[in-house]
Design goal:
The protein is mainly β. It has a single domain, classed as Beta Barrel (Porin). Helix content is about 10%, strand content about 60%. The chain contains one helix and nine strands. It has an eight-stranded antiparallel barrel. Strand 3 and strand 4 form a beta hairpin. It is elongated. It comes from Algoriphagus halophytocola. Pfam families: OMP_b-brl. This is PorT family protein. InterPro entries: Beta-barrel_OMP (IPR027385).
């Protein structure tokens, strides 16, 4: 948990550094959140084993315009990922991360933007759940790696008065299980709405 707090502080420091730039280049600070649809992906995952699990993400970002059509956007988000298994107990993995993406946004037209960039994620909590006899049984797990690296790709649109919407895909590169050679990764979609101050 200390590592998570340290990297949250690091992410907020990046935001402050960006805000210290000249007002001509600063695009603004904002908040963003929405729904997430995550699953396990990789060569060792059968499509019949798991289904998408609905979660959420919420956090903040800042934008630093390098040119009129290219911006750098660091952010810090709390994100709930995982997967679900359609077995007789409806078992599921609930993985909570602090995501720190650094996105490059390109604006081919006014409002419309395409973005991509690396993301490092720090595990805040992991548990496995199942439904037994009308109740939910859950237990914390230490089987998940504490750090996850990935790539974020997406498309967004800036609406009037500071509002924005976007759709993105997180493509994890780091196998998520400790002490395992299984190629299993965090993969999923995010639909977000945000506001830039």
């Amino acid at each position: 948990m200390k590592k998570v707090l340290l990297f949250i502080a690091f992410g907020l420091g990046m935001v402050q550094l960006s805000q210290a730039q000249s007002s001509e280049k600063l695009g603004g600070f904002g908040v963003r959140g929405g729904a997430s649809l995550f699953n396990f992906g990789g060569d060792d995952v059968s499509e019949n084993d798991y289904t998408n699990r609905v979660g959420f993400h919420l956090g903040g970002y800042t934008m630093l315009f390098m040119t009129d059509r290219l911006a750098l956007e660091p952010g810090v988000y709390y994100s709930v990922k995982g997967t679900q298994n359609d077995d007789f107990v409806d078992s599921r993995a609930v993985l909570n991360y602090v995501d720190i993406p650094v996105l490059f946004r390109m604006y081919p037209t006014e409002g419309l933007n395409l973005f991509a960039g690396p993301q490092i994620s720090f595990l805040a909590k992991s548990k496995f759940e199942g439904d037994f006899f009308g109740g939910t049984v859950s237990y914390d797990s230490d089987a998940i790696k504490e750090t996850d690296f990935g790539l974020v790709l997406g498309v967004g649109y800036n609406l009037p008065k500071g509002f924005n919407v976007q759709a993105s895909y997180d493509y994890g590169f780091t196998p998520i299980f400790k002490d395992s050679d299984a190629d299993v990764y965090n993969r999923g979609f995010k639909l977000s709405a945000g506001y830039t101050f």
